[in-house]
Amino acid sequence: MRRPPGLTPRRPWLRPKGRAQESRLRLGRVRTAPSSGASSAMAAAARPRRLNFFPSAPARRARPSAISGAGGAEGRRRSRVPLFAFSPPELLFFPSRRSVALLPCVWLRGGCGMALPRLLVRALHRAAAAAAPAAPDFNSFVTRTNTCGELRAAHVGQKVTLYGWVQYQRQGLFLVLRDFQGLTQVVIPQDEAHSHVKELLSSAPLESVVRVTGTVSPRPLGQQNPKMTTGDIEVKAETAEILNSCKKLPFEIKDFIKGAKEFLVPSREAGKFYSLPQSPQQFKQLLMVGGMDRYFQVARCYRDEGSRPDRQPEFTQIDIEMSFVDQAGIQRLIEGLLQHSWPEERGSIVTPFPSMTYEEALAEYGTDKPDTRFGMKIVDISDVLRGSNIHFVQNALSYPHGSIRAICIPQGVRYLTNKDLESLKESAKSQFNQEILEIIRRPDGSLKSLLTKFLGEKEQSELIQALNMQEGDVVLLAAGEHKQVCSALGALRLLGANLLEAAGLALRDPTAFHFLWVVDFPLFLPKAENPTELESAHHPFTAPHPSDASLLYSDPTKVRSQHYDLVLNGNEVGGGSIRIHSAEQQRFVLEKVLKEDSEVLSHLIEALEFGAPPHGGIALGLDRLISLIVDAPSIRDVIAFPKSFRGRDLMGNAPDYVTPEELEPYHIQVSWPLEEKEAKKN
Asked: CA 310, 313, 317 angle in degrees (round to 5)?
């Protein structure tokens, strides 16, 4: 008897009973559940069942239209050959435009070799094709408007209702909602009018089922996620409901840990712990006090903090300390070290590295770690506009630290869309509370801006000259407090560079390595929580700049430090300082300036009293430096056994619970939260 095309003879009697049976097709496989005879197979055929279709590699190459079960051009083409199987329960497969339709087939009592008549096969195929929808609508018959995987930029402005599981929630600011189609980021409202929505979504346990209604909005510039199909948009929640709350999960879900702390390790002495060092700072200073002239170590350091692409809980640094050294000596040492060890494949590096003060970096690049591979520097145009009658300009300049500054984006008219410019302005507003005004130079040389009607020809000409504007350039202007203005324009400089490169303008050479020393940092900064109090800009052992030593006792806010950072392509790869070697000065900094208890560091202060030499040092982040050299996106890519996002050792399943018997030698008892106690029992 002839078989319909595409069928392979079956010998079901050769298969052991109870094992999963596989039906081989010419274009793929159908995997069915275990079967134990015809009666159970007939019963199974009557039940709705989920089957997985696994096409073989040759099938994918031979007939993509016949095996595609998803969307796309291949999935939309209908196959002319039905896929069907002869293992019980018998199912006939007909590919629809975007999904696979399953129809029960006639039961073949004769087993293998009993073929369906071709006319019946074709008739069933035509019937299935006629019944199949043009495209599946996953939102029909349900109360949602969209799935979590289909929203795009074209949906911006639409009000939508989503249902899904809480995949991730960050600090009450946003959450990621998941369903079978994908992920969508939901912004949690922060205003008082929606406080109930914020409380509900912020407290919803992970994997809880929720309904969210809100408006689709574009993500702020620079926050798009190309790894998500919905990465260009977010939904600003207006109403929400928890449909089903999830219990505490028995496995880890990633979250952020804020701030850096030491890891504590218990000892066998009751109540005493080890503290793993964030860095060997005090140890190496004590070495210098003890007469050790110089020291270096490839040091493993630990910080109990949330991970980022360039950080993780344990990391390695090249740690160096020297006696009788100044800042220039440390810099020459590091430049020689890097030049000697630099890989030949990356070309040569030129020393000495250029140097820039903190104030210069902030004024020209808006950051203390500038990427000097491209221009677009911040320009001070305060003097150009000082004589104008523009209200916001005069208002900004009336403040003690008021400033008018701008950056010029080359060929911005050609490479940036109106949407890009609006996104840049929105980014400055949301991140820095800074308004931005745009100025465009037309092909005829004239300026297009809300500002130009307040400026005469002379002022416009001076503005063009100050910014070196060419035809087609776009200028972003900001007015306000100096540091805020510079920080906002510095961020826009980097975002603008990303947009230009994404549009095809080569701006930064990916093979170039631009090292830079940044020096003369402030010694102290106002505390964020209380600006009337001061904290160390880096650490309390940094010496003041020799020229500012007297200001330490009269106006510490104006004191520069002898700290120095090494920057590579906009990334900090090292930092160090000349240390305080006077016990009296160290005690004054701790007690009078920082308002700290100096007794905590009495061992160091006492050591400084016994002839401590002038000394200084630096630490290079080895993991970060290597990741930049090899162009790796994360330091985890260059660490042999990295920890997970939350610092977990997934292979060793650490940290983990231990028994009371294991804790007994350390004189520790654990007070378990109720839910963890139940999980531990189970």
From this structure: 65
